[in-house]
Amino acid sequence: MYGTEQIIPGTIIAGPELEPIEGYICVKRGIITEIGEERTPSKNIIAPCFVNAHTHLGDSVFKDPPLGRTSGFRIQRDLDALVKPPDGLKHRILRDTPYKTLIEGMRKSLLDMIETGTCAFADFREGGVVGVAALNKALEGLKLHSMTLGRPTEPELPTQVVLAEVRRILLHSTGLGISGANDLDFKLLENISTCTRQHRKIFAIHAGEKDTSDIEKALSLKPDLLVHLTNATRKDIEDVADAKIPVVVCPRSNLITGAGIAPVAEMLEAGIKVAAGTDNVMLNSVNMFAEMEFMSKIFSIDDRQVFKICTLNGSFVMGSNSTGSIQKGNKANLMILNGNSNNLAGIKNPISGITRRARPDDILSVLHS
C-alpha cells in the first residue's frame, strides 16, 4: 500500500555522486526515509530514474519517416525540410492530425517513458495553446513530472497578436520552447523572451544545431535553457559557461540528422550542466537506455558522468533537485533493475553495467512519486 513503508534491498546508486552502496532503502508515502548499509543477498540494483530533458512528443503520430538512399528524402540533407517551422514535413503532418489522434499518440509515448524508467521530461510543444492542452490531456492520471514548453503557432502575424497568444500559452505551460533564433523575427523573439520572464516562466531555445549562426543571438535573449549546441565553438562554450546556462544534448537525433556530435566533454570541462534528451519521436524512441548507451560509446567521458547526464543533471534542468538523487528526504523516483538478468549477470561495476548495456527488460519495477 502507498501509505506503508517499503524496504528494498540491493545495490543502491546513492547520493549526488552516484556511489554504489550495498544495503537497503526505505520508502514511505513516496519519500525516501532511510538508506542503510549492510550485506544483502539481493541482486537488485536500485538507481535514480531517467529524466528525458528534451522531447517533441507531438511527433508520436509520425514514427517512420523515410531515411534510406532510395526514398527520395535524405534526412541528413534536408533537416529544415523535415522539422523547420512552419512548413517542415512534421509541421504539415501535425496540422493535419486530428486532436484526438495527437493525444493518443503522445499518451503512448508517455506510457513508454514510464515503462522504460523515465520519471520526468521536458517537451517543446508545437501547436500553441491547443498543442499544450493536448499534452496536458495526454498526461492525465500519469505519474510523470513534466516541463511543457509551448510556442506560438503563427509568428508571422503582427507582434501584438503573437504576444497575446504567447500570454495564453504561458497560462497553461511551464514556459516557451523556441525552435531557433534564425526562425523568427529577432525583435519579436526579444519581446517573447521578455514576456516569458515577466510571467516568471522558462524560456528555452534550440541553438547551434545546424551551424553557429544562431548561438550568439540565442545567448543575447538570456535563455534559461539551450538545446543541442552541436556545432558550438570553444568561445561559444565559454560564453554559455559564463552565462551559467544549462545545455541539453540529443546525440542520437543529431547523428541521424547529420548535425554532428555535440562537444560534451568540452562543455563539462567548462563547468556547464549538461543533460540529455531523445528529441523527435519520429526519429528515436523515448527510451533513455538507448540514449545512455549511445553516449557512453561516443563521448570521451566516464560512465558515471554519462549516467549523471541522463538522470541527476536532467533533474537539475527541470528545477527538481529533490526528485533526482537517492538520498534521505528526496522523492522516491527509482528504477529497480535485475542485476542477475541474463544481460546484467556478472557485471562488476553497477554504474558501468547500467550505462553501457542495461535495457528496459532488465527493469523489475519503477517507483514514481
Automatic annotation (TrEMBL):
- Which InterPro entries does the annotation name? Amidohydro-rel (IPR006680), Metal-dep_hydrolase_composite (IPR011059), Metal_Hydrolase (IPR032466), MTA/SAH_deaminase (IPR050287)
CDD domains to which the protein is assigned, alphabetical:
archeal_chlorohydrolases
Q: Which domain of life is it from?
A: Archaea
Keyword check for Amino-acid biosynthesis, yes or no.
no
Record EC number: 3.5.4.26
Q: Where is the Amidohydrolase-related domain?
A: 45-357
Q: Which GO terms of the molecular function aspect are on file?
A: diaminohydroxyphosphoribosylaminopyrimidine deaminase activity
- Recite the UniProt keywords alphabetically: Hydrolase
This protein's record includes keyword Zinc: no
Q: Which residues span the membrane?
A: none
Q: What is this protein called?
A: Pyrimidine deaminase archaeal predicted
Q: Which organism does this sequence originate in?
A: Methanosarcina barkeri 3
